[in-house]
Design a protein that fits this description.
This protein is an all-alpha fold. Helix content is 76%, strand content 2%. The protein is globular, with a radius of gyration of 22 Å. The N terminus is likely disordered.
C-alpha cells in the first residue's frame, strides 16, 4: 500500500494535477499508450458485463456461478488496481492511502465477510490462512526470482533485495501482528477483543504511514498501463471521472459477486469430490491475489523497483494479518446478534499456527531490511511442499520455527528495523517539542 505512494517524485503537485509531467510523454508514445490502455479497459468491461449478466440472469448451478463470478471478480479487481494506482496522483496523500488500504483487500475482505456472515468459520479460516501463506510463500519469492532473472539478463545478477529504511514501518507492524497471532493460537479462540486489537493495530499503522513522507526519486513514468494514461489526461475532470467510474464499477461488482463465488466454490468442491477446506483455502486466494500481484511483479522486472515490490507485498501482508482477521469476529457477532467468541477447532489451530510460523520466518528475514536468495528459496520450497502435501502441517511449522531461530541467532548483529522505525517515529511522527527532547537524550 504505502509502497505505491513512493513513486511520487513531486507530492506537492497532487492537488494541482499532472500538467508538469506532460513533456515526459509526447507524440507517438502518448497515442500508443492511450490505445493500449483503452483496449485493456475495454477488454475488462467486455468480460465483466456479460459475466455479471450471466451471473444475475442466466447462471444456474454452482459451477456456472463460480465461473461467471470468477471472471467478473478478476476484471473488477484490475479496474480497481488501475483506478487506485492513478488516484494517488490526484488527491492528498492521506486520502490516497486510505483508498488504497481499503480497496487493496476488498476481494479478500468480501470472501471473509461472506463466510463469517454465513457462520462458515472453518472456511473463513481456510481462505484467511491460504491468502496469507500464498502472499508470503509464493508472492515474496517470485518477486526475487523475477528480479534475479532480469538482473542476470542485464549481466549483473542480484543476490538480495535491499529494502528502503522507511519500509521498516511495514516490517515493524508485521512483527507486531505476527506476535499477536501466537496469542490467538494460545487462547484457541478468536473473539471481539482480538478484532478490536487488530483493527487498532491497522489504524495505527495507517496513521503512521500518513505521517511519514517518501524520499523516493522515482517519477510518474514508472506507472504503467491504463493508470499511466489516466494520469496524463489533460482534463482533471476527465481523470477524476474515469477513476470514479472504475472504482464504482469494481467495487459494486466485487461486492455483489464475491459472495456467490465463494459459496458456489464450496459446492463445486463437493461435486468434484475435493476437500471443501482445501478448495476454499487456495482457489479463492489465487483469484483475489492475482490482480494485486501483477503490479508488484512488473516492478520486480525493472530490478531497480524490486524493493518497492517487496514493500507492497509486506504492506499487503500487514493488511491481511490485521484488518482482514480483525473483521471476522466482528462480522460473526453481528450475524448472530450479540458479541461472541469463535472457538478454534484443532484443524484451524494447526492452520493458523502454520501461517504464523511462516510469518515469523518472513519477519526474521526482514529484520535486517534485506531479502536474500536463500530466504526466497526457503519460503517458496516450504510453501510449495505443504501445498502439495497438506497433512504435513506440523512438520512444516516446525521447520519454519527452527529456521526462524537459526536466522535470528545468525543475523542478530544485523537487525536494523527497530532502530530505523524509532528514527522514523522521532523524525516524522512525534510532535516537534517531543522530537527535540528525544534528540537531546543521549
Amino acid at each position: 500500500m504505502r509502497a505505491l505512494w513512493s513513486r511520487v517524485k513531486y507530492p506537492a503537485l497532487l492537488l494541482g494535477g499532472c500538467h508538469g509531467w506532460e513533456p515526459a510523454m509526447q507524440g507517438g508514445a502518448v497515442q500508443r499508450t492511450a490505445k493500449t490502455s483503452a483496449v485493456m479497459i475495454a477488454v475488462c468491461y467486455a468480460v465483466l458485463v456479460p459475466s455479471m449478466a450471466a451471473l444475475l440472469f442466466l447462471s444456474h448451478g454452482p459451477m456456472m456461478i463460480a465461473v461467471t463470478s470468477a471472471f467478473a471478480i478478476v476484471a473488477a479487481s484490475l479496474l480497481l488496481a488501475w483506478a487506485t494506482e492513478s488516484a494517488q496522483f490526484l488527491v492528498s496523500q492521506s486520502l490516497a492511502l486510505a483508498i488504497l488500504a481499503l480497496l487493496q483487500v476488498l476481494p479478500e475482505y468480501m470472501f471473509e465477510a461472506t463466510l463469517a456472515w454465513n457462520r462458515l468459520i472453518e472456511y473463513a479460516a481456510a481462505t484467511m490462512t491460504g491468502s496469507n501463506r500464498l502472499l508470503m510463500g509464493a508472492g515474496w519469492p517470485l518477486i526475487f526470482f523475477i528480479a534475479y532473472a532480469f538482473s542476470r539478463r542485464n549481466g549483473s545478477p542480484i543476490k538480495e533485495i535491499r529494502l528502503d529504511a522507511r519500509q521498516s514501518v511495514e516490517a515493524f507492524f508485521l512483527v507486531l501482528a505476527t506476535v499477536y497471532s501466537f496469542v490467538i493460537i494460545l487462547k484457541r479462540t478468536l473473539d471481539i477483543i482480538d478484532g478490536i486489537v487488530l483493527l487498532l493495530m491497522y489504524v495505527t499503522y495507517l496513521w503512521i504511514c500518513m505521517k511519514i513522507p517518501e524520499e523516493s526519486e522515482e517519477e510518474v513514468e514508472q506507472v504503467h498501463g491504463p493508470a499511466k494514461t489516466i494520469i496524463f489526461l489533460k482534463s482533471r475532470a476527465l481523470r477524476l471521472g474515469i477513476i470514479v467510474l472504475l472504482v464504482a464499477t469494481g467495487g459494486v461488482v466485487i461486492f455483489s459477486s464475491a459472495g456467490p463465488f465463494v459459496l458456489s466454490l464450496l459446492e463445486v468442491a463437493l461435486m468434484l469430490g475435493f476437500s471443501q477446506f482445501l478448495f476454499a483455502q487456495w482457489m479463492a486466494p489465487f483469484l483475489s491475489e492475482f490482480p494485486e500481484s501483477a503490479s508488484a511483479f512488473y516492478w520486480a522486472g525493472t530490478v531497480r523497483l524490486s524493493p518497492m515490490a517487496i514493500g507492497n507485498m509486506v504492506s499487503s501482508k500487514v493488511n491481511q494479518w490485521s484488518l482482514l482477521i480483525g473483521t471476522i469476529p466482528l462480522i460473526y457477532s453481528v450475524s448472530i446478534g450479540h458479541l461472541a467468541f469463535i472457538p478454534l477447532s484443532p484443524l484451524q489451530v494447526e492452520e493458523i499456527l502454520l501461517t504464523a510460523a511462516q510469518s515469523a520466518f518472513g519477519c526474521v528475514a526482514l529484520l535486517k531490511l534485506r531479502f536474500t536468495w536463500k530466504e526466497a528459496v526457503i519460503l517458496f520450497s516450504l510453501w510449495f511442499t505443504q501445498f502439495l502435501f497438506p497433512p504435513i502441517r506440523i512438520e512444516i511449522t516446525a521447520a519454519y520455527l527452527a529456521l526462524s531461530a537459526i536466522w535470528l541467532v545468525y543475523y542478530r548483529n544485523q537487525i536494523t528495523i527497530f532502530g530505523q522505525f524509532k528514527k522514523s517515529m522521532i523524525e516524522h511522527v512525534l510532535p516537534s517539542k517531543m522530537r527535540q527532547r528525544s534528540l537531546t537524550i543521549p
